[in-house]
Amino acid sequence: RNYQKLVEEAPAHHLDPAVRDRMFEAALALGGAIGYDSAGTVEFVVDADRDDAPYFLEMNTRLQVEHPVTELTTGIDLVEWQLRSAAGETLGFAQEDITRRGWAIEARVNAEAPAHDCRASFGAIAAYAEPTLAGGRVDSGVDEHSNVAPHYDSMIAKVIGHGANRRSATARVRAGLRAFRIEGLETNQAFL
Question: E strands, the chain, where?
Answer without folding.
Answer: 7-10, 41-47, 53-60, 103-110, 112-113, 119-120, 123-124, 127-129, 136-140, 147-148, 155-163, 181-183
